[in-house]
Specification:
Length: 394
């Protein structure tokens, strides 16, 4: 897969290995944003003039694309700022209505802080209890343990589809069956899955699915909440303001139907159009092809790092596009700095997953993550950089 030429912000000789934090943008996405601001810009949903009507069509076409990408219906997609806002929306709106003191939710040890703290805020409001599913030794959410932990008191299971640190892929069908067997709903954090795997919410059988545009080669500030129509229709507003209403008086306000009810204020119009271009871009390549490409890079990386005897690898061998590792005796930040000197950009830190770091017994990891623009040469640059780290630190 040779897509590097589509990405003007990646100069020759720079190995960008931080796609799990945010993906670089292909020219069609940049063009869509430039055109939206430079030629076709207007507000949506309100204007009586043609330009605004056209922009409304484009904004709603983006919603249709965002739904199609994950096999959902257009009226089931709420545009939000990103996965973080989507999870907060579900916690405050659905959780605030349906969960009460004594109810339990099940998270896992590898969740991103956005899928932990959002629920803690709800816990502080309602008195729900949070349980934490452990991991298997190779870094997957242990679904046998989840099965043993789940009880009828559990109303929600919220798991990452793909771990942003370990790349481990959840058996989402089984997670849905386990949640539903006790009457709980399943929320999947698809931030790292949507750019890397084909996703079909209908086939999975989940109830909520969230993802961020900027990890999918689209703009920042736009993301999606998908929720099954009957669930979304019954959820109260999350924020109040313009656009989300039916009729407002000082005595009483009625609200627009979903998904408009959840999009208070002027939305990120151009972000939605950029996201649409990003979705078209990945669909034209094919998510199966992207997954196979990244799996090959993961295998090449893990095989090479295994040969460097001072490197510890985390996560499973069949990880989706993400490899976390530690170099013995060297802090991950020093690893990252030395790699940067060799024009290799990785992430070093806790990756917004401090409870996972605790479980791994490390303060931080170094993480290489791949996208459609990476190739074997990037892995080789990483390995050369790590050999230099070893030489410097003896
Ligand atoms: N969940 C996962 C698994 C992530 O990787 C991220 C981003 N690192 C988030 C949630 C939060 O996404 P955002 O910052 O785009 O809201």
């Amino acid at each position: 897969m040779d897509r590097l030429a589509d990405f003007p912000a990646i100069p020759a000789g720079w190995a960008y290995l931080d796609t799990a934090a945010t993906a670089q943008k292909p020219q069609p996405v940049i063009d869509a944003i430039t055109r939206a601001y430079g030629e076709t810009y207007a507000t949506v949903h309100r204007g009586v003039y043609q330009r605004s009507a056209d922009m409304t069509l484009a904004y709603e076409a983006a919603r249709a694309a965002a739904a199609r990408l994950i096999g959902g219906q257009v009226n089931e997609i709420v545009f939000v700022r990103g996965a973080t806002e989507a999870i907060n929306l579900v916690a405050q709106s659905w959780g605030g209505t349906h969960l009460k003191a004594g109810d339990r939710i099940l998270l896992s040890q590898l969740e991103h802080h956005s899928n932990i703290v959002s629920w803690q805020l709800l816990r502080d409001r309602t008195g729900i209890e949070i349980d934490v599913c452990p991991l298997t030794p190779d870094g997957r959410i242990d679904l046998d343990a989840a099965e043993a932990m789940l009880t009828p008191a559990h109303k929600l299971v919220a798991f990452a589809h793909v771990s942003n640190v370990l790349g481990s892929i959840l058996d989402v069908r089984r997670a849905a069956d386990l949640a539903h067997a006790v009457g709980a709903k399943l929320l999947l954090d698809g931030c790292q899955a949507v750019p890397r795997l084909p996703v079909d919410v209908g086939a999975i059988g989940c109830d909520f699915y969230v993802y961020s545009g900027h990890k999918l080669y689209g703009p920042t500030g736009i993301g999606c909440l998908w929720a099954r129509a009957e669930i979304l229709d019954a959820m109260p507003p999350y924020q109040g303001g313009g656009s989300m209403i039916d009729k407002v008086t000082f005595e009483r306000t009625t609200y627009a139907p979903a998904p408009t009810r959840f999009e208070a204020g002027t939305p990120h119009i151009v972000g939605a159009l950029g996201l649409h271009a990003a979705i078209d871009y990945v669909e034209a390549i094919g998510l199966d092809a992207i997954h196979a490409h990244e799996a090959a890079l993961v295998t090449r990386t893990r095989d090479a790092l295994r040969d460097l005897n001072s490197v510890t690898l985390f996560g499973p061998d069949d990880a989706a596009g993400i490899v976390s590792f530690a170099v013995e005796g060297v802090h991950p930040h020093d690893v990252g700095t030395i790699l940067d000197e060799g024009h290799v950009a990785i992430r070093a830190g806790h990756h917004c997953a401090q409870p996972l770091m605790e479980a791994l017994g490390v303060p931080a990891t170094a993480r290489a993550s791949f996208g459609v623009y990476n190739g074997p040469a990037d892995v080789d640059a990483l390995v050369r950089g790590l050999e230099r780290v070893r030489r410097i630190f003896g």
